[in-house]
Write a structure and sequence with these properties.
This protein is mostly helical. The chain contains 27 helices and no strands.
């Protein structure tokens, strides 16, 4: 997160009517002083500094000349050079709040924070109702890491002048450091409202609101800010949290184009691309995340899912196996690994993985393990271990009586044992539980055929094919029974 606070430099005196305080020197001195001021007004800082330096040599204790010279040095970013003339000015006029403020700025720019704090503190003491003194005192407190004191100073400044956008922004920065995001968001929003074109204020407001979970409120501020990598990343999160995945993906792409290059950023883009069904693009984003952080397990797991959706089952199994290696206790990764191995026609490799998962089975999380029991039941059924298959299906149905996979398995067992009435009941329960269970429709058709209810059987085969036109078993059964019943 990038936030900016702003420091104000105070003009030492009014730029007109400089003779009001008068000089002890002659008329020529006065003319040269006015010429130096005019050069400053004409934005010739070097010329102004040269003229004031000459005058300071002639009158080393003159408060106005030294104050102006220090001020011009500050405008030229010559902070260390500004210290000496401003100290001479303070010696001649010790309670002048403008001199003290600018001396604080000089010391701060010269990286002498203790002396800067002393100068700003004296400025506030010299004139307690000086908005600039309290504003700059807050700034030095913040710079020194004393944000509680900074908040107090900024609050006092706002009591004196409530419509200053920069102070609202700076107060928001200190509140953010203190973890007071809700308060910070309000002050950042005030700053942005007072200066709606200021990108920094809009950025800070949007990010504070996003941190406070106010994503919808954050969006207009983030949209109004310059679209750098930080803003685009925050905006992507806000869009995603408010359900606009398309804009979120576009914002992440802007962030990466702007130079953002973190594993989490590419991971989030992959998630959004996957939700949109673009699994190839998602896989590429996850690979970019892993190129940055090869141990980013979330990216590796989701890469496996993208590969699985693309039919790359061997690659998916490799990805899930790596996740298991990183996080041995991740049961979801183990379940995904076993599924990829099954689809890769390597059931023997899946079986020990399933068994490892079941070793961690918890009574308070039965649903998490149901699919594993169903898959093991199917494997044991195909291997003619009917007792073992029955154990796994019953285990699931004790937890979830409407589990379509387990009901299908129980129906298969009843069919194999020639218990057609029970098989019909189980298969019908399976399709009621999941109207997409095409295998249950097909097997219900076979059962009805065995019960000599051929028209009903034909209907069930057609139902299976309506779900998957290329389902070969149902197609063969439909064609065979159609030939018989002509």
């Amino acid at each position: 997160m990038k936030m900016k606070s702003l420091l104000r430099i105070v003009w030492p005196f009014a730029l007109l009517a400089l003779f009001a305080s008068g000089f002890a020197q002659d008329r020529e001195f006065q003319v040269k002083f006015n010429e130096a001021v005019k050069l400053y007004n004409d934005n010739d800082l070097s010329g102004a500094a040269s003229g004031l330096e000459s005058l300071a040599q002639q009158a080393p204790n003159n408060a106005e000349v030294n104050s102006w010279l220090g001020f011009v040095y500050l405008k030229m970013n010559r902070h260390a050079d500004a210290v000496a003339p401003l100290e001479r000015a303070r010696a001649a006029s010790p309670n002048n709040v403008q001199i003290l403020n600018n001396l604080g700025a000089a010391y701060m720019g010269a990286d002498d924070m203790d002396k800067a704090l002393d100068a700003y503190t004296k400025a506030a003491e010299a004139k307690p109702d000086s908005f600039d003194a309290h504003s700059n005192l807050g700034h030095i407190h913040a710079h020194k890491g004393n944000h509680e004191s900074a908040v107090s100073s900024y609050m006092r400044a706002l009591e004196l002048k409530s419509d200053d956008a920069a102070v609202h922004n700076n107060l928001g920065v200190s509140l953010t450091v203190l973890g007071r995001d809700a308060e910070a968001a309000g002050h950042f929003a005030d700053a942005a409202r007072m200066s709606s074109s200021n990108s920094t204020f809009n950025q800070n407001a949007g990010m504070a609101m996003a941190r406070a979970g106010r994503y919808a409120d954050a969006i207009p501020y983030l949209e109004a800010a310059e679209q750098n990598a930080d803003v685009s990343t925050a905006l992507a999160r806000a869009y995603s949290e408010t359900g606009n995945e398309e804009k979120a993906a576009a914002a992440i792409e802007r962030a990466t184009s702007a130079g953002a290059n973190s594993a989490s950023l590419w991971y989030n883009l992959g998630v959004m691309q996957g939700k949109a069904g673009n699994h190839a693009a998602a896989a590429e984003s996850y690979r970019k995340a892993l190129a940055i952080n090869a141990e980013h397990a979330e990216s590796l797991n989701n890469l496996g899912l993208a590969q699985f959706h693309a039919g790359q089952y061997s690659d998916a199994a490799d990805s899930f196996a790596k996740v298991v290696g990183m996080r041995p206790d991740d049961m979801d990764a183990r379940i995904n690994l076993a599924a990829a191995q099954v689809y890769n026609k390597n059931v023997n490799a899946a079986i020990p993985v399933w068994k490892e998962v079941l070793h961690t089975e918890r009574a308070d999380e039965p649903s998490k393990y149901n699919d594993v029991h169903v898959q093991l039941g199917h494997v044991k059924y195909r291997r003619n271990d009917l007792k073992g298959a029955h154990y796994h299906y019953r285990k699931v149905l004790m937890n979830d009586s409407n589990n379509s996979g387990a009901l299908l398995g129980m129906g298969n067992l009843a069919y194999k044992e020639n218990k057609m009435g029970e098989a019909e009941s189980r298969f019908r329960a399976a399709v009621r539980a999941d109207r997409r269970n095409l295998v249950a429709f097909n097997n219900l058709g076979l059962t009805l055929e065995r019960l000599n209810r051929k028209k009903e059987a034909l209907y069930m085969y057609r139902q299976a094919l309506a779900l998957e036109a290329n389902y070969e078993e149902a197609r063969k059964n439909l064609n065979r029974l159609s030939m018989i019943t002509r």
